[in-house]
Protein backbone atom coordinates (compact mmCIF):
# COMPACT_ATOMS: atom_id res chain seq x y z
CA UNK A 1 0.00 0.00 0.00
CA UNK A 2 1.26 3.48 -0.85
CA UNK A 3 2.24 5.71 2.11
CA UNK A 4 -0.55 7.96 3.36
CA UNK A 5 -0.31 11.51 2.04
CA UNK A 6 -0.93 14.20 4.68
CA UNK A 7 -1.60 17.80 3.58
CA UNK A 8 -0.62 20.30 6.31
CA UNK A 9 -2.36 23.66 5.87
CA UNK A 10 -0.63 26.27 8.04
CA UNK A 11 0.95 29.64 7.26
CA UNK A 12 3.82 29.02 9.69
CA UNK A 13 6.68 26.97 8.27
CA UNK A 14 7.80 25.79 11.70
CA UNK A 15 4.42 24.09 12.24
CA UNK A 16 4.81 22.11 9.03
CA UNK A 17 8.37 21.10 9.98
CA UNK A 18 7.20 19.91 13.39
CA UNK A 19 4.50 17.77 11.80
CA UNK A 20 6.94 16.43 9.19
CA UNK A 21 9.50 15.47 11.83
CA UNK A 22 6.80 13.64 13.78
CA UNK A 23 4.99 11.87 10.92
CA UNK A 24 7.80 11.35 8.41
CA UNK A 25 9.60 8.63 10.38
CA UNK A 26 6.21 6.88 10.82
CA UNK A 27 5.91 6.37 7.07
CA UNK A 28 3.66 9.30 6.17
CA UNK A 29 4.28 11.64 3.24
CA UNK A 30 3.80 15.21 4.48
CA UNK A 31 2.92 18.00 2.02
CA UNK A 32 2.87 21.74 2.91
CA UNK A 33 0.22 24.32 1.97
CA UNK A 34 0.87 27.82 3.33
CA UNK A 35 -2.39 29.52 2.34
CA UNK A 36 -6.04 28.75 1.57
CA UNK A 37 -5.31 29.14 -2.14
CA UNK A 38 -2.46 26.61 -1.89
CA UNK A 39 -4.75 24.17 -0.08
CA UNK A 40 -7.40 24.35 -2.81
CA UNK A 41 -4.81 24.02 -5.55
CA UNK A 42 -3.22 20.96 -3.92
CA UNK A 43 -6.55 19.22 -3.33
CA UNK A 44 -7.67 20.02 -6.87
CA UNK A 45 -4.57 18.47 -8.43
CA UNK A 46 -3.62 15.53 -6.17
CA UNK A 47 -5.14 12.89 -3.91
CA UNK A 48 -4.57 13.15 -0.15
CA UNK A 49 -5.44 10.86 2.74
CA UNK A 50 -5.83 13.57 5.38
CA UNK A 51 -5.90 17.36 5.72
CA UNK A 52 -4.47 18.94 8.89
CA UNK A 53 -6.09 22.37 8.71
CA UNK A 54 -5.12 25.45 10.71
CA UNK A 55 -8.12 27.71 11.33
CA UNK A 56 -6.26 31.05 11.48
CA UNK A 57 -4.51 32.82 8.61
CA UNK A 58 -3.34 36.36 7.90
CA UNK A 59 -6.82 37.83 7.42
CA UNK A 60 -7.96 37.03 10.94
CA UNK A 61 -5.65 35.44 13.49
CA UNK A 62 -8.04 34.57 16.31
CA UNK A 63 -11.63 33.94 15.19
CA UNK A 64 -10.97 30.95 12.93
CA UNK A 65 -13.45 32.26 10.32
CA UNK A 66 -11.05 31.97 7.40
CA UNK A 67 -10.23 28.38 8.32
CA UNK A 68 -13.91 27.49 8.70
CA UNK A 69 -14.69 28.98 5.27
CA UNK A 70 -11.82 26.96 3.79
CA UNK A 71 -13.06 23.80 5.51
CA UNK A 72 -16.46 24.17 3.83
CA UNK A 73 -14.85 24.72 0.42
CA UNK A 74 -12.63 21.64 0.81
CA UNK A 75 -15.58 19.53 1.88
CA UNK A 76 -17.47 20.61 -1.25
CA UNK A 77 -14.54 19.45 -3.43
CA UNK A 78 -13.95 16.10 -1.70
CA UNK A 79 -16.60 14.84 0.70
CA UNK A 80 -14.53 11.78 1.69
CA UNK A 81 -11.27 13.56 2.64
CA UNK A 82 -10.77 13.43 6.45
CA UNK A 83 -10.11 16.90 7.92
CA UNK A 84 -8.59 17.50 11.35
CA UNK A 85 -8.62 21.17 12.36
CA UNK A 86 -6.06 22.73 14.69
CA UNK A 87 -5.66 26.17 16.28
CA UNK A 88 -3.97 27.85 19.22
CA UNK A 89 -7.23 29.69 19.94
CA UNK A 90 -9.39 26.72 20.79
CA UNK A 91 -12.88 27.22 22.15
CA UNK A 92 -15.77 24.81 22.53
CA UNK A 93 -17.94 26.85 20.14
CA UNK A 94 -15.22 26.88 17.48
CA UNK A 95 -14.72 23.12 17.78
CA UNK A 96 -18.47 22.48 17.49
CA UNK A 97 -18.77 24.68 14.39
CA UNK A 98 -15.74 23.00 12.76
CA UNK A 99 -17.24 19.56 13.36
CA UNK A 100 -20.61 20.76 12.02
CA UNK A 101 -18.91 21.90 8.80
CA UNK A 102 -17.36 18.48 8.31
CA UNK A 103 -14.17 18.21 10.39
CA UNK A 104 -13.51 14.74 11.81
CA UNK A 105 -11.50 15.86 14.85
CA UNK A 106 -10.08 18.91 16.60
CA UNK A 107 -6.59 19.55 18.01
CA UNK A 108 -5.45 22.45 20.14
CA UNK A 109 -1.95 23.91 19.72
CA UNK A 110 0.46 23.05 21.13
CA UNK A 111 -0.54 19.44 20.54
CA UNK A 112 0.56 16.30 22.28
CA UNK A 113 2.62 14.24 19.84
CA UNK A 114 1.07 10.95 20.87
CA UNK A 115 -2.47 12.28 20.39
CA UNK A 116 -1.64 13.85 17.00
CA UNK A 117 -0.08 10.61 15.77
CA UNK A 118 -3.02 8.52 16.99
CA UNK A 119 -5.53 10.93 15.43
CA UNK A 120 -3.75 10.87 12.07
CA UNK A 121 -3.60 7.07 11.97
CA UNK A 122 -7.25 6.70 12.93
CA UNK A 123 -8.55 9.26 10.45
CA UNK A 124 -6.43 7.98 7.56
CA UNK A 125 -7.79 4.47 8.05
CA UNK A 126 -11.39 5.71 8.40
CA UNK A 127 -10.98 7.80 5.26
CA UNK A 128 -9.73 4.84 3.27
CA UNK A 129 -12.62 2.69 4.50
CA UNK A 130 -15.08 5.43 3.51
CA UNK A 131 -13.62 5.67 0.02
CA UNK A 132 -13.71 1.89 -0.41
CA UNK A 133 -17.35 1.97 0.64
CA UNK A 134 -18.08 4.70 -1.91
CA UNK A 135 -16.57 2.55 -4.64
CA UNK A 136 -18.49 -0.56 -3.57
CA UNK A 137 -21.73 1.38 -3.48
CA UNK A 138 -21.07 2.65 -6.99
CA UNK A 139 -20.30 -0.88 -8.18
CA UNK A 140 -23.71 -2.01 -6.97
CA UNK A 141 -25.28 0.55 -9.29
CA UNK A 142 -23.42 -0.75 -12.32
CA UNK A 143 -24.92 -3.53 -14.40
CA UNK A 144 -22.38 -6.30 -14.11
CA UNK A 145 -22.01 -9.26 -16.47
CA UNK A 146 -21.44 -11.93 -13.83
CA UNK A 147 -24.43 -13.92 -15.09
CA UNK A 148 -23.25 -14.00 -18.71
CA UNK A 149 -22.92 -17.35 -20.48
CA UNK A 150 -19.58 -19.12 -20.42
CA UNK A 151 -17.59 -19.38 -23.64
CA UNK A 152 -18.72 -22.72 -25.11
CA UNK A 153 -17.09 -23.77 -28.37
CA UNK A 154 -15.79 -26.90 -30.03
CA UNK A 155 -16.00 -25.94 -33.72
CA UNK A 156 -12.96 -25.39 -35.92
CA UNK A 157 -14.22 -21.88 -36.66
CA UNK A 158 -13.83 -20.96 -32.98
CA UNK A 159 -10.40 -22.51 -32.57
CA UNK A 160 -8.52 -19.31 -33.52
CA UNK A 161 -10.63 -17.36 -31.00
CA UNK A 162 -9.79 -19.80 -28.20
CA UNK A 163 -6.11 -19.77 -29.11
CA UNK A 164 -5.94 -15.98 -29.06
CA UNK A 165 -7.70 -15.83 -25.71
CA UNK A 166 -5.16 -18.28 -24.32
CA UNK A 167 -2.19 -16.34 -25.69
CA UNK A 168 -3.37 -12.74 -25.26
CA UNK A 169 -5.54 -13.02 -22.14
CA UNK A 170 -2.68 -12.98 -19.60
CA UNK A 171 -0.82 -10.16 -21.36
CA UNK A 172 -2.93 -7.16 -20.39
CA UNK A 173 -2.82 -5.86 -23.98
CA UNK A 174 -5.71 -3.87 -25.45
CA UNK A 175 -7.98 -6.12 -27.51
CA UNK A 176 -10.54 -5.21 -30.17
CA UNK A 177 -13.26 -7.86 -30.56
CA UNK A 178 -15.13 -7.77 -33.85
CA UNK A 179 -18.15 -9.68 -35.06
CA UNK A 180 -21.83 -9.46 -35.89
CA UNK A 181 -24.50 -8.44 -33.38
CA UNK A 182 -25.19 -11.23 -30.91
CA UNK A 183 -22.17 -13.34 -31.87
CA UNK A 184 -20.77 -13.44 -28.33
CA UNK A 185 -18.27 -10.57 -28.19
CA UNK A 186 -19.12 -9.89 -24.54
CA UNK A 187 -18.52 -13.53 -23.64
CA UNK A 188 -15.09 -13.36 -25.30
CA UNK A 189 -14.32 -10.20 -23.29
CA UNK A 190 -15.22 -12.05 -20.09
CA UNK A 191 -12.96 -14.95 -21.08
CA UNK A 192 -10.06 -12.55 -21.71
CA UNK A 193 -10.59 -10.97 -18.29
CA UNK A 194 -10.79 -14.35 -16.56
CA UNK A 195 -7.54 -15.44 -18.26
CA UNK A 196 -5.65 -12.40 -16.98
CA UNK A 197 -3.98 -11.58 -13.65
CA UNK A 198 -6.83 -9.05 -13.21
CA UNK A 199 -9.44 -11.80 -12.85
CA UNK A 200 -9.88 -11.02 -9.15
CA UNK A 201 -10.66 -7.37 -9.90
CA UNK A 202 -13.81 -5.93 -11.51
CA UNK A 203 -14.85 -6.40 -15.12
CA UNK A 204 -16.89 -3.25 -15.77
CA UNK A 205 -19.10 -3.28 -18.86
CA UNK A 206 -20.43 -0.17 -20.58
CA UNK A 207 -22.26 0.17 -23.89
CA UNK A 208 -20.56 3.36 -25.02
CA UNK A 209 -22.46 3.29 -28.31
CA UNK A 210 -25.67 3.90 -26.36
CA UNK A 211 -24.38 6.98 -24.53
CA UNK A 212 -25.24 10.47 -25.70
CA UNK A 213 -22.56 13.15 -25.69
CA UNK A 214 -24.30 14.78 -22.73
CA UNK A 215 -23.75 11.83 -20.38
CA UNK A 216 -20.63 10.25 -21.90
CA UNK A 217 -18.10 11.97 -19.59
CA UNK A 218 -20.23 11.50 -16.48
CA UNK A 219 -20.67 7.77 -17.14
CA UNK A 220 -17.02 7.08 -17.93
CA UNK A 221 -15.22 9.58 -15.71
CA UNK A 222 -17.78 10.40 -13.00
CA UNK A 223 -18.86 13.80 -11.72
CA UNK A 224 -18.83 15.85 -8.54
CA UNK A 225 -21.85 17.25 -6.76
CA UNK A 226 -23.14 20.40 -8.43
CA UNK A 227 -21.38 19.75 -11.74
CA UNK A 228 -24.76 20.05 -13.50
CA UNK A 229 -28.42 20.42 -12.59
CA UNK A 230 -29.13 16.81 -11.55
CA UNK A 231 -25.74 16.14 -9.93
CA UNK A 232 -26.95 16.01 -6.33
CA UNK A 233 -24.12 13.71 -5.18
CA UNK A 234 -20.63 12.71 -6.30
CA UNK A 235 -20.56 9.84 -8.77
CA UNK A 236 -17.74 7.39 -9.48
CA UNK A 237 -17.21 6.78 -13.21
CA UNK A 238 -16.60 3.46 -14.95
CA UNK A 239 -12.85 4.04 -15.30
CA UNK A 240 -12.51 4.40 -11.51
CA UNK A 241 -14.69 1.35 -10.91
CA UNK A 242 -12.46 -0.69 -13.20
CA UNK A 243 -9.20 0.42 -11.54
CA UNK A 244 -6.95 -2.63 -11.33
CA UNK A 245 -9.36 -4.60 -13.51
CA UNK A 246 -10.84 -4.52 -17.00
CA UNK A 247 -13.10 -2.01 -18.74
CA UNK A 248 -15.16 -3.47 -21.60
CA UNK A 249 -16.32 -0.80 -24.05
CA UNK A 250 -19.04 -2.30 -26.23
CA UNK A 251 -20.26 -0.76 -29.53
CA UNK A 252 -17.12 1.37 -29.73
CA UNK A 253 -17.72 2.08 -33.41
CA UNK A 254 -20.75 4.28 -32.61
CA UNK A 255 -18.78 6.98 -30.77
CA UNK A 256 -18.99 10.50 -32.14
CA UNK A 257 -15.73 12.32 -33.04
CA UNK A 258 -15.94 14.42 -29.87
CA UNK A 259 -16.33 11.35 -27.66
CA UNK A 260 -13.52 9.59 -29.52
CA UNK A 261 -11.18 12.48 -28.68
CA UNK A 262 -12.07 12.39 -24.98
CA UNK A 263 -11.57 8.64 -24.78
CA UNK A 264 -8.24 8.82 -26.64
CA UNK A 265 -6.87 11.35 -24.14
CA UNK A 266 -7.55 9.00 -21.21
CA UNK A 267 -6.11 5.98 -23.00
CA UNK A 268 -2.92 7.90 -23.81
CA UNK A 269 -2.35 9.46 -20.39
CA UNK A 270 -4.15 7.10 -18.00
CA UNK A 271 -5.58 10.22 -16.33
CA UNK A 272 -8.99 11.88 -16.28
CA UNK A 273 -11.01 14.41 -14.31
CA UNK A 274 -14.51 13.98 -12.97
CA UNK A 275 -17.01 16.36 -14.56
CA UNK A 276 -16.99 19.58 -12.55
CA UNK A 277 -13.57 18.92 -10.99
CA UNK A 278 -10.05 19.87 -12.02
CA UNK A 279 -8.43 17.14 -9.95
CA UNK A 280 -6.76 14.45 -12.05
CA UNK A 281 -7.22 10.78 -11.23
CA UNK A 282 -4.87 8.08 -12.49
CA UNK A 283 -6.11 4.53 -13.00
CA UNK A 284 -4.64 1.21 -14.06
CA UNK A 285 -7.21 -0.28 -16.43
CA UNK A 286 -7.07 -2.84 -19.21
CA UNK A 287 -9.37 -1.79 -22.04
CA UNK A 288 -11.20 -4.30 -24.23
CA UNK A 289 -13.44 -2.89 -26.95
CA UNK A 290 -15.98 -4.49 -29.28
CA UNK A 291 -17.72 -3.50 -32.50
CA UNK A 292 -19.67 -4.96 -35.38
CA UNK A 293 -18.27 -2.26 -37.70
CA UNK A 294 -15.18 -2.31 -39.91
CA UNK A 295 -13.20 0.31 -38.01
CA UNK A 296 -10.34 0.29 -40.51
CA UNK A 297 -12.79 1.28 -43.24
CA UNK A 298 -14.41 3.82 -40.92
CA UNK A 299 -10.99 5.33 -40.21
CA UNK A 300 -10.16 5.46 -43.92
CA UNK A 301 -13.44 7.31 -44.50
CA UNK A 302 -12.65 9.80 -41.72
CA UNK A 303 -15.40 8.63 -39.38
CA UNK A 304 -13.15 6.99 -36.80
CA UNK A 305 -9.85 8.31 -35.46
CA UNK A 306 -6.91 6.17 -36.65
CA UNK A 307 -4.93 7.03 -33.49
CA UNK A 308 -7.78 5.74 -31.32
CA UNK A 309 -8.00 2.59 -33.44
CA UNK A 310 -4.28 1.96 -32.87
CA UNK A 311 -4.79 2.30 -29.11
CA UNK A 312 -7.70 -0.14 -29.09
CA UNK A 313 -6.43 -2.65 -31.62
CA UNK A 314 -3.19 -4.05 -30.23
CA UNK A 315 -4.72 -7.46 -30.97
CA UNK A 316 -7.94 -8.15 -32.86
CA UNK A 317 -10.17 -11.16 -32.25
CA UNK A 318 -12.89 -11.86 -34.80
CA UNK A 319 -15.84 -13.84 -33.44
CA UNK A 320 -17.44 -15.83 -36.28
CA UNK A 321 -21.23 -15.72 -36.70
CA UNK A 322 -23.20 -18.74 -35.60
CA UNK A 323 -23.84 -19.85 -39.20
CA UNK A 324 -20.06 -20.47 -39.52
CA UNK A 325 -19.98 -22.68 -36.42
CA UNK A 326 -22.99 -25.03 -36.64
CA UNK A 327 -21.11 -27.65 -34.59
CA UNK A 328 -21.50 -25.35 -31.56
CA UNK A 329 -25.28 -25.03 -31.82
CA UNK A 330 -26.17 -28.27 -29.91
CA UNK A 331 -23.66 -27.37 -27.18
CA UNK A 332 -25.03 -23.84 -26.78
CA UNK A 333 -28.64 -25.00 -27.02
CA UNK A 334 -28.13 -27.54 -24.22
CA UNK A 335 -26.55 -24.87 -22.02
CA UNK A 336 -29.38 -22.38 -22.59
CA UNK A 337 -32.00 -25.07 -22.05
CA UNK A 338 -30.53 -26.01 -18.67
CA UNK A 339 -30.21 -22.34 -17.68
CA UNK A 340 -33.78 -21.35 -18.51
CA UNK A 341 -35.38 -24.58 -17.32
CA UNK A 342 -33.80 -23.87 -13.92
CA UNK A 343 -34.79 -20.20 -14.07
CA UNK A 344 -38.46 -20.89 -14.79
CA UNK A 345 -38.63 -24.16 -12.79
CA UNK A 346 -39.73 -26.10 -15.88
CA UNK A 347 -39.21 -29.91 -16.17
CA UNK A 348 -37.61 -29.69 -19.63
CA UNK A 349 -34.64 -31.99 -20.12
CA UNK A 350 -33.68 -32.04 -23.81
CA UNK A 351 -34.65 -31.80 -27.48
CA UNK A 352 -36.45 -34.12 -29.88
CA UNK A 353 -34.21 -35.03 -32.81
CA UNK A 354 -36.34 -32.98 -35.22
CA UNK A 355 -35.97 -29.92 -32.99
CA UNK A 356 -32.21 -30.34 -32.85
CA UNK A 357 -32.07 -30.71 -36.64
CA UNK A 358 -34.10 -27.52 -37.01
CA UNK A 359 -31.73 -25.64 -34.71
CA UNK A 360 -28.66 -26.72 -36.68
CA UNK A 361 -30.27 -25.91 -40.05
CA UNK A 362 -31.45 -22.43 -39.04
CA UNK A 363 -29.49 -19.44 -40.39
CA UNK A 364 -29.54 -17.52 -37.05
CA UNK A 365 -29.26 -13.92 -38.30
CA UNK A 366 -29.29 -12.83 -34.65
CA UNK A 367 -26.53 -15.32 -33.79
CA UNK A 368 -26.08 -16.63 -30.23
CA UNK A 369 -28.39 -13.99 -28.77
CA UNK A 370 -31.22 -15.14 -31.06
CA UNK A 371 -30.49 -18.76 -30.21
CA UNK A 372 -30.78 -18.07 -26.49
CA UNK A 373 -34.08 -16.23 -26.91
CA UNK A 374 -35.40 -19.10 -29.03
CA UNK A 375 -34.47 -21.68 -26.39
CA UNK A 376 -35.98 -19.55 -23.62
CA UNK A 377 -39.27 -19.39 -25.53
CA UNK A 378 -39.18 -23.14 -26.22
CA UNK A 379 -38.67 -23.93 -22.54
CA UNK A 380 -41.78 -21.93 -21.69
CA UNK A 381 -43.89 -23.50 -24.47
CA UNK A 382 -42.75 -27.13 -24.12
CA UNK A 383 -45.53 -29.48 -22.94
CA UNK A 384 -43.26 -32.33 -21.92
CA UNK A 385 -39.69 -33.12 -20.98
CA UNK A 386 -38.48 -32.66 -24.59
CA UNK A 387 -38.57 -29.54 -26.76
CA UNK A 388 -40.30 -30.19 -30.11
CA UNK A 389 -39.55 -28.41 -33.39
CA UNK A 390 -42.86 -26.53 -33.14
CA UNK A 391 -41.90 -25.15 -29.72
CA UNK A 392 -38.97 -23.29 -31.27
CA UNK A 393 -41.14 -20.98 -33.38
CA UNK A 394 -38.41 -20.46 -35.97
CA UNK A 395 -39.74 -17.92 -38.47
CA UNK A 396 -36.63 -17.18 -40.52
CA UNK A 397 -35.85 -19.51 -43.46
CA UNK A 398 -33.37 -22.25 -42.83
CA UNK A 399 -30.48 -23.04 -45.11
CA UNK A 400 -31.49 -25.41 -47.93
CA UNK A 401 -28.08 -27.01 -47.63
CA UNK A 402 -25.27 -26.89 -45.13
CA UNK A 403 -24.45 -23.23 -44.40
CA UNK A 404 -20.85 -23.87 -45.42
CA UNK A 405 -21.76 -24.93 -48.99
CA UNK A 406 -19.60 -22.92 -51.40
CA UNK A 407 -22.52 -21.60 -53.45
CA UNK A 408 -23.97 -19.94 -50.30
CA UNK A 409 -20.70 -18.21 -49.36
CA UNK A 410 -18.92 -15.02 -50.35
CA UNK A 411 -15.47 -15.18 -51.92
CA UNK A 412 -13.99 -13.98 -48.64
CA UNK A 413 -15.74 -16.78 -46.74
CA UNK A 414 -14.57 -19.33 -49.31
CA UNK A 415 -10.98 -18.18 -48.90
CA UNK A 416 -11.31 -18.37 -45.11
CA UNK A 417 -12.63 -21.95 -45.29
CA UNK A 418 -9.89 -23.07 -47.68
CA UNK A 419 -7.17 -21.55 -45.48
CA UNK A 420 -8.65 -23.15 -42.36
CA UNK A 421 -8.85 -26.57 -44.07
CA UNK A 422 -5.24 -26.28 -45.26
CA UNK A 423 -4.08 -25.44 -41.76
CA UNK A 424 -6.09 -28.31 -40.27
CA UNK A 425 -4.72 -30.74 -42.87
CA UNK A 426 -1.13 -29.77 -42.03
CA UNK A 427 -1.61 -29.53 -38.24
CA UNK A 428 -1.15 -25.76 -38.18
CA UNK A 429 2.13 -25.78 -40.13
CA UNK A 430 1.99 -22.42 -41.95
CA UNK A 431 4.77 -23.24 -44.43
CA UNK A 432 3.10 -26.46 -45.62
CA UNK A 433 -0.34 -24.82 -45.71
CA UNK A 434 1.04 -21.95 -47.81
CA UNK A 435 2.63 -24.41 -50.22
CA UNK A 436 -0.64 -26.34 -50.56
CA UNK A 437 -2.52 -23.11 -51.30
CA UNK A 438 0.07 -21.87 -53.78
CA UNK A 439 0.93 -18.87 -51.63
CA UNK A 440 4.12 -17.50 -50.16
CA UNK A 441 4.49 -17.72 -46.39
CA UNK A 442 4.21 -13.92 -46.03
CA UNK A 443 1.10 -13.81 -48.26
CA UNK A 444 -0.58 -16.45 -46.12
CA UNK A 445 0.29 -14.54 -42.93
CA UNK A 446 -1.38 -11.44 -44.39
CA UNK A 447 -4.52 -13.42 -45.15
CA UNK A 448 -4.51 -14.99 -41.70
CA UNK A 449 -4.38 -11.53 -40.15
CA UNK A 450 -7.15 -10.22 -42.41
CA UNK A 451 -9.45 -13.12 -41.57
CA UNK A 452 -8.59 -13.13 -37.86
CA UNK A 453 -7.23 -16.68 -38.00
Walk me through this protein's architecture.
The protein has 453 residues and is of the alpha/beta class. It is built from 19 helices and 16 strands. The strands form 5 sheets. A 5-stranded parallel beta sheet has the order 2-1-3-4-5, with helices on both faces. α4 links the parallel β4 and β5. α13 crosses α15, α17 packs across α18 and α18 crosses α19. The protein is elongated, with a radius of gyration of 30 Å. About 4% of the residues have low confidence.
Q: List low-confidence stretches.
A: 140-147, 400-408
Separate helix tally: 19
Total strands? 16
What does the overall shape look like?
A: elongated
Radius of gyration equals 30 Å
Brief rundown of the structure:
The chain is an alpha/beta fold and 453 residues long.
